[in-house]
Amino acid sequence: MNVSMNDTSRAFLALLEAAIHAHEPPPMPDGLDWVALYRLAAEHRVDGMLLAPALQASQPPSGALLTQWQQRAMAVTMRQFQIVDTLHTTLAVFEEANLRAVVLKGVVLKALYPEPDLRVMSDADLLVESGEFDRAKSLLTDQGYQEITEDSHEDTFVCVHPDGLRIELHNRLFDRKNRGFLARLDEGALFPVSKAVRAEAYGGECWTLPVGEHALFQLLHMAKHMITTGFGLRQACDFTLFIEANDSAIDWVWCRKQCETLDLLPFQRALLTLCRDHLGLSDGAWQSVMTGGSPKSDEETANGLLADILDAGVFGKSTAERTRSAAVVYRSFDGAEGERDSRWRSLARAVFIRRDELHPPYLYAKEHGFLLPIAWAHRLFRYAFIDRLKGAESGAGFSVARERMALLDRLGMLK
Amino acid sequence: MAFKLTYLQARSGFVTRKVGDAYMIVPTGPRMKEYKGVITINETAAFLFDLVKEKRRQTEELVKALQDEYGIYGQTAFEALSAFVDQCSFANLLVSEVVDHLDLQRNYYMSDDLLDEVKQALANPELSKLAEELEIAEAAANEPDPNAGATLFPEIEPARGGDGTQSDGNV
To answer: What would you measure as the largest C-alpha separation in chain B, in angstroms?
Structure first.
């Protein structure tokens, strides 16, 4: 995970900042490795957004790279049109059925970008009242959506439309089994469907959370990913643009208080610092959150967070070892409060998990409890050998986990 | 003296987008089922497509727009327009309609005086005042008329037949 801010990373951030604010990028360094920059952008799924500012460089990308970049951006545009169109058709059916489906992120955030078609949205998250969950599922299947059973669970119905739009229908926003700060979150009180408002979104109107709640939700969503695999720069861009568009309408005192209650104030401050320093978040009322802290400490933590984000890809799944590390980090929250797990204890927690928490490819033991020891052995085998077979160093996942745990500690997120 | 006016209009359900240095036409809504691939065009074509997407336009108006925007004149401008029409017609993105003066009079209830003004306008690109009057005539003509046999400024279909009006997808 040791990502230093090299020329590529610096140029990448500068182009991204220019892209989301639709202004001319600063001069790029001589001999910039455009291939490396393109790969980094693709990992974060912002390559389409970066094409226009990249072409403004004095030595822009060219040849096969430019062709590929251009083609991908055009394909993204086509795909996004289709996804957005399908989503609004689906939402219209919900409206007709008088069933309120609250749109989270997605088309609401897309609309904030100078080039909304190039802000990739791979799926749509919809929140409905628990009592309406079954009816909402029926509405989706009636429209031709097919359930993805391996991704669905008690509170989330995951399905895909023949046109390719994937919808995650939720009756709650965060997993009941979530650890860390999420175990203390009363999401029913913070994000009730009844508080939803009608708002402009890309391609039409929709129900969504009020701006203050939506800002807090985004922050909690990023924090949730932070305690597993990490989150990507696109989410930080979303947050930056959302704050710029709604700063004066957000109750920052309330927002700060919620973060304090959840022990997320250091994370909130680090994230805002990162958005300001690297993504050009303009001054505003949000700065009230920063009072009483140490700017130097915020900057240091923000830089650590940025290094983690640059390494993460969209949802932190940029490398196999990173994905492996997620289990180690996540399982460490099983330890008693205040107790830091030892290296081997963390690893043991990651391998010897409970039957009800098994996920693919270990579901055979979920169905047949007597196979649990086999699943543990299988899991241990994967930790020990699969990474090596894939070219990663043995134990690299654990190493990433240790670094991430140190960062989470600095962010106060291990409580 | 007979003369003909050629009108062009984009079919509904398409938008243009600039992506990097390239331009593309993207189908929207129900058109997505018809068009699965990417339709790439050049900058001039994107400019012309946006004009004919906005409203039905005469070819002369488009040629003038090319002159104003890109400084291309005469035969070059006509060739650019012709290439645009060919490409768009091939992809079935465009509807063209040729109307002679008899159609104008019959379909748009145009008076002889107004028709004369149209003729003058064709010789003189300063069309603003006349366009206003045409719009007034169109609005009047669009009033419900139980005796009207012809649809006034109808939604243009890809292929039409009939006296004096033809459409073959090309100029």
So the answer is: 53
**Is A222 in contact with A256 (CB distance < 8 Å)?**
no
Q: CB B20 to CB A78 under 8 A?
A: no
Cβ neighbours of residue A374 under 8 Å, at least 6 residues apart? A365
- Closest residue in A to B37 (Cα–Cα): A78
Chain A residue numbers with beta carbons less than 8 Å from the beta carbon of B35 are: none
DSSP A289: G
**Mean pLDDT value of segment B48-56:** 94
| Two structure tokens written together for B123 | 């010789």
**Residue position matching structure tokens 């593309």:** B24
Compute the distance between CA of residue A63 and CA of residue A61 in angstroms, rounded to an integer: 7
Contact B19 A82 (CB under 8 A): no
Rounded to whole angstroms, the Cα distance separating A185 from A96 reads 33
As beta bridge partners, residue B41 has B23
Asked if residue B2 has pLDDT above 60, the reply is no
Residue extents of the structural domains in chain A: 1-61, 77-209, 210-318, 320-410
**Is the domain A77-209 a CATH 1.25.40.530 member?**
no
Compare B86 and B47 and report the one with higher pLDDT.
B47
Q: Binning pLDDT at 50, 70 and 90, where does residue A3 land?
A: very low
Report the run of H or E that residue A158 belongs to, with start and end.
Answer: strand A156-160
Residue of A nearest to B30 (CA): A85
**Predicted-complex ipTM score:** 0.71
Q: Residue B54: in which H helix or E strand, if any?
A: helix B43-54
Over residues A158-173, the mean pLDDT reads: 94
Structure-block tokens of residue B139:
């609005």
A284-329 confidence digits (pLDDT tens):
999 999 888 788 888 888 988 998 888 765 445 555 555 555 555 5
Query: A-chain residues within 8 Å CB-CB of B20?
Result: 51-52, 55, 66, 69-70, 73
Contact A124, A107 (CB under 8 A): yes
Residue A393 confidence class, pLDDT cut points 50, 70, 90: very low
Nearest-CA distance A45 → chain B (Å): 16
The whole-angstrom distance between B156's CA and the closest CA on chain A is: 25
Helix axes A396-410, A295-312, angle to 10 degrees: 150
* CATH architecture label of B1-100: Alpha-Beta Complex (3.90)
Interface of A with B (CB under 8 A): 48, 51-52, 55, 66, 69-70, 73-75, 77-78, 81-82, 85, 117-118, 163
Residue, of A22 and A292, whose pLDDT is higher: A22
Query: Three-class SS of residue A205?
Result: strand
Q: Which tokens hold the place of B116?
A: 């004369």
pLDDT at A67 over 70: yes
Lowest mean pLDDT of A88-102, A123-137, B47-61, B129-143, name the range.
B129-143
Residue B17 binned pLDDT confidence (cut-offs 50, 70, 90): very high
Nearest-neighbour CA in chain B from A49: distance (Å): 9
Distance of CA A411 to the CA centre of its chain: 17
pLDDT in tens, A192-218: 999 999 999 999 999 999 999 999 999
In chain B, where are the structural domains located?
1-100, 108-143
